[in-house]
């Protein structure tokens, strides 16, 4: 059996509240996400799910515990060497999708998907070909030359999906990816996301309030009192 794409071991994270107290939002979280597995994370607002996703994606550091991504323990490497290793891993191995698309407004849909590839050292011609292919696969290929303001909310989020997948990550992390859309558009856009993940064999950890969407994933976990439990 191959190593999981993501393994979290004993993750703890707290935040200072006032001068003398600390709120512990993660209390020894353990999690494995296998290759090709799509896991739903269900939790109310303020429970720490965004913190957990940020730690899993190497955007934040845990107070305790280990983060293994693609077989590498990236939480224990110290100093500049560690920062460099985490930056490379984020760029190459992790894709992020948020509730709000965060597309760059001055660039077209195609350019928004090209830019992360250029930052990763891909040549422009290759980056544009991959971007156009991804946009076509999610049904917005004909909108490639439009800027975000000219796209609907669902179209903008589809472009954000493509941007997250542009560098061929091993792990997709999504924080309420359809939470800003109306129910009908949400279902359609989620179908696109799920289909794209299945087609590419991508591993994913997707936080959502929508229990119906969560039930369509391979496994559903709930963040409760700072630990993960089966939902």
Please outline the helices and strands.
Layout lengths: L5 E12 L3 E13 L4 E5 L6 H8 L7 E6 L2 E2 L5 H15 E4 L11 H11 L4 H14 L15 H13 L5 E5 L7 H18 L2 E5 L3 H4 L4 E6 L2 E4 L1
Parallel strand pairs: 3-8, 3-9, 6-7, 7-8
Antiparallel strand pairs: 1-2, 1-4, 4-5, 9-10
Strand line-up of the largest beta sheet:
6-7-8-3-9-10
Task: Kindly state the percentage of residues in helix.
Answer: 25-40%
Named CATH topology: Rossmann fold
Which series of helices and strands comes N to C?
Answer: EEEHEEHEHHHEHEHEE
- Which percent band covers the strand fraction? 25-35%
Structural class: alpha/beta
User: Could you give a short account of the major beta sheet?
Assistant: 6 strands, mixed
Return the CATH architecture. Answer: 3-Layer(aba) Sandwich
CATH class: Alpha Beta
As residue ranges, the low-confidence spans are none
Superfamily (CATH H level) name: P-loop containing nucleotide triphosphate hydrolases
Offer a few descriptive terms:
231 residues, alpha/beta, Rossmann fold, 6-stranded mixed β-sheet, 4-stranded antiparallel β-sheet, 7 helices, 36% helix, globular
Description:
With 231 residues, this protein is an alpha/beta fold. It has a single domain (6-230), classed as 3-Layer(aba) Sandwich (Rossmann fold). The chain has seven helices and ten strands. The chain has helices spanning 49-56, 79-93, 109-119, 124-137, 153-165, 183-200, 211-214; strands at residues 6-17, 21-33, 38-42, 64-69, 72-73, 94-97, 171-175, 203-207, 219-224, 227-230. The strands form two sheets. It has a six-stranded mixed sheet. Strand 9 (219-224) and strand 10 form a beta hairpin. It is globular. The model has no long low-confidence stretch (mean pLDDT 87).
């Amino acid at each position: 059996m191959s190593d999981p794409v993501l393994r979290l071991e004993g993750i703890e994270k707290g935040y200072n509240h006032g001068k003398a107290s600390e709120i512990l939002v993660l209390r020894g979280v353990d999690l494995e996400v296998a290759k090709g597995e799509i896991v739903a994370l269900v939790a109310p607002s303020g429970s720490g799910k965004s913190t957990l996703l940020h730690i899993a994606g190497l955007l934040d550091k845990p107070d305790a515990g280990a983060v293994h991504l693609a077989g590498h323990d990236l939480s224990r490497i110290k100093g500049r060497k560690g920062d460099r290793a985490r930056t490379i891993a984020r760029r190459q191995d992790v894709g992020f999708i948020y509730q709000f698309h965060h597309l760059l407004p001055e660039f077209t849909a195609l350019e928004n998907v090209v830019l992360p590839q250029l930052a990763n050292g891909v040549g422009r011609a290759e980056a544009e070909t991959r971007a156009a292919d991804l946009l076509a696969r999610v049904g917005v290929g004909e909108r490639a030359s439009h800027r975000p303001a000219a796209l609907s909310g669902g179209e903008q989020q589809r472009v954000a999906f493509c941007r997250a997948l542009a560098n061929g990550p091993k792990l997709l992390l999504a924080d309420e990816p359809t939470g800003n859309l109306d129910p009908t558009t949400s279902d359609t856009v989620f179908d696109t996301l799920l289909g794209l993940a299945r087609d590419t064999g991508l591993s994913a950890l997707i936080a959502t309030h929508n229990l119906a969407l969560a039930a369509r994933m391979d496994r559903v976990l709930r963040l409760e009192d700072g630990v993960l439990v089966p939902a």
